[in-house]
Amino acid sequence: MTRTVYLNGQFLPEDQAKVSIFDRGYTFADAIYEVTAVIGGKLLDFPGHTARLKRSLEALGIAMPVGEDELLELHHEIVARNGLDQGLVYLQISRGAEDRNFLFSDSLTPTFSMFTQVVPLLANPKAQTGIAVLSVPDGRWANRQIKTVQLLFSSLAKMEAKKQGADDVIFVEDGLITEASSANFHIITKAGVLVTRQLSNALLHGITRGSVLGLAEKVGLAFEERAFSVEEALDADEAFITSAGAFVLPVVSIDGKAIGNGKPGERTLKLREVYIDDQVSRAIGR
Ligand code: PDD
C-alpha cells in the first residue's frame, strides 16, 4: 500500500515526494528530526517532542517552518490519511537546498517532510525477552542533545551488534555510559534506585526518559541523575532503555554478561506498563 507522506505544505503519495540532491540534509546531514509514537491513532508525549524540536532547530539556527498548532494538525492529518492505529510519525526539517558549500546562506527555505510507519509498539516481543547490548566507544559528535540526522555512527554500531548476535549497543565515553544507539539507558541498583545519566550535550534529552522519571515514584522507585560505568550497570538489579519507539524495554545483558538474573526486571516491566497506561490515557487525538 502506498503511504501518503507530507512534503513542504503538500500531502502526496510517497513515490511522488521529491527532495533536491542539493538539499543540505542530503549533502551535510544539516537536518533535525523527531519521532512520535501513535497508539489508537493518538499521539504520545507530543508536547515534549514539540518542545525538543524547537530546541534542535534553535541550536542550528533553522526557523520553525510552521506554528505549533499547525504542527499538531499536520500530525493528526498524516495519521488520519494513513489510517495509522499503532506506529510512528517521523518528521524531518533540513536547512534547505542550495549549491554545495560549507558556508550556507541565511535565506534558505527549510525542507519539511513527514511520514508514518506501522509498528506493533505494544506487542513488542522484546518486552518479554529483554535485549542484549554490547558496549562500544562513543564516536559520535559532541552535540548529542541536538536531534540531528547524523546517525551513521549509531547505525553502523547497531549493525555490528546485530552481526555479533546482540540487539543494540550502549556507548561509553571516559569510562561512563552515555546512552544506547537510539534510546536512553538506565539501571535500577541493588538498593532499588533508578539511576540515569544527567542531561548534558553527551546524550539526547529523551522525551520518554523525562516521562518515565516522572512516573518512577508511582512504582516506588527513587531516582538519581548521574553517570555510571558498564561495571556498575553489570552490578545492577535491572537495566532498561527508553525511547518513543521502544517505550520501556528491559536490557538483560551487556557484552554477554547477565544483568541481575538475566531476565527482564519486575520493576522495569511495571514501569513499561505504567508508562503506557499513563501515556495512552493522555494521548492527543483530534
Ligand atoms: N530515537 N537517544 C538517542 C540517541 C535517540 O536517537 C533517541 C530516540 C533517544 C530517546 O529519545 P525519545 O525518548 O525522545 O524517543 C535517546 C528515535 C526514537 C529514533 O531515532 O528512531
Low-confidence stretches: none
What is the helix tally?
8
Shape: globular
Ions, cofactors and other ligands present here are: N-(5'-phosphopyridoxyl)-D-alanine
CATH topology tier name of the largest domain? D-amino Acid Aminotransferase, Chain A, domain 2
Number of domains: 2
Number of strands: 15
| DSSP strand content | 25-35%
CATH homologous superfamily designation of the largest domain: D-amino Acid Aminotransferase, subunit A, domain 2
Order of helices and strands: EEHEEHHEEHEHEEEEHEHEEEH
CATH class of the largest domain: Alpha Beta
Q: Biggest sheet: strands, sense, closure? A: 9 strands, mixed
Structural class: alpha+beta
Short description:
With 286 residues, this protein is an alpha+beta fold. The chain contains 8 helices and 15 strands.
Layout: helices, strands, pairs:
Elements: E1 4-7, E2 10-13, H1 24-28, E3 31-39, E4 42-43, H2 46-60, H3 68-81, E5 86-94, E6 111-118, H4 126-129, E7 131-137, H5 152-163, E8 168-173, E9 176-180, E10 184-188, E11 193-196, H6 207-215, E12 222-225, H7 230-234, E13 238-243, E14 247-254, E15 257-258, H8 266-282
Parallel strand pairs: 7-8, 7-14, 11-12
Antiparallel strand pairs: 1-2, 1-6, 3-4, 3-5, 5-6, 8-9, 10-11, 10-13, 13-14, 14-15
What does this protein look like?
The chain has 286 residues and is α+β, with helices and mostly antiparallel strands. It folds into 2 domains: 115 residues, D-amino Acid Aminotransferase, Chain A, domain 1 (2-Layer Sandwich), CATH 3.30.470; 157 residues, D-amino Acid Aminotransferase, Chain A, domain 2 (Alpha-Beta Barrel), CATH 3.20.10.10. It contains 8 helices and 15 strands. Strands 7, 8, 9, 10, 11, 12, 13, 14 and 15 form a 9-stranded mixed beta sheet that branches. β13 and β14 form a beta hairpin. The longest helix has 17 residues. It is globular. The two termini are 24 Å apart. N-(5'-phosphopyridoxyl)-D-alanine binds next to α6 and β13.
